């Protein structure tokens, strides 16, 4: 996308997270307009608008992230920029990137494809019944629809069409007896824990000690699990939109509530020498009819 046009492309990228390893050096070398995603970043949008007002070319990813590929809603930034600068949008679809880097590491040759579509005329406000916000969203959805039409349909078979999450919480005493505990947001917490991109952003990009949160077989103690949850809250103190931007406002707030309540419960369990058991499950449905089930038990000892 940066080399195809005959003019320099100014890219908009994630400014709320540092990039990993070599990618960070490559991005820094090329340069980009950083956007603090999940928060109102007027400075970044004004910079991006300035590029278009100078007849420049702007590279933007309408979804604003990769944590839920194929199921993400378009952000309205692309519509706002097109409207303010009266700039057309060129849709581009990328195919073959799923597991592409892992193939390279295995000395296999992935097939990557970039498809360029017809220009979409600049956004204009019509005198219809839609509010400005809804009109922006409608245009952004159109852009994403055109992009998706350029992606190889086989790529969409690799990601779930929909998914459900659930979690149960138990307190177990030293004698072996247990009791169920209900706290707000457990389902949202399960969704967070089963979304590798969010966990990887915290662990790899932000270098937070959240390893105990991964749904993998490992020994978990109260102290380490509490520190991992506190690390999530520390990120939310600095970037309140980290969860709501990726999960939606309601789900993001529910997940945060669950983290805070679970942290309190962990403190109580530590003082009473009880074990906390979290049974998390996920069901994912794919476009070809496949159903994937995942479950993991978090056993957190005093």
Please tell me about this protein's structure.
The chain has about 300 residues and is an alpha/beta fold. It has 2 domains: about 10-155, no CATH class; about 160-300, no CATH class. It is about 40% helix and about 20% strand. It has 11 helices and 10 strands. It has helices spanning about 20-30, 40-55, 75-85, 100-105, 130-150, 155, 185-195, 195-205, 220-240, 240-245, 250-270; strands at about 10-15, 35, 55-60, 90-95, 115, 160-170, 180, 220, 275-285, 290-300. The strands form 3 sheets. The protein has a 5-stranded mixed beta sheet. Strands 2-1-3 form a 3-stranded parallel beta sheet, with helices on one face. A two-stranded antiparallel sheet has the order 4-5. Helix 9 (about 220-240) runs antiparallel to helix 11. It is elongated, with a radius of gyration of 22 Å. The termini are far apart. The mean pLDDT is about 90.
Principal-axis shape: elongated
Strand order across the biggest sheet?
A: 7-6-9-10-8
**Strand content of the residues, in percent?**
15-25%
Distance between the termini: 52 Å
Question: Helix-strand pattern, N to C?
Answer: EHEHEHEHEHHEEHHEHHHEE
Largest sheet: 5 strands, mixed
Total domains: 2
Indicate the radius of gyration in whole angstroms.
22 Å
| Sequence stretches where pLDDT stays below 50 over 5 or more residues | none
So how many helices?
11
Overall pLDDT confidence: 90
Structural class by secondary-structure content: alpha/beta
Number of strands: 10
Query: Into which percent range does the helicity of residues fall?
Result: 40-55%
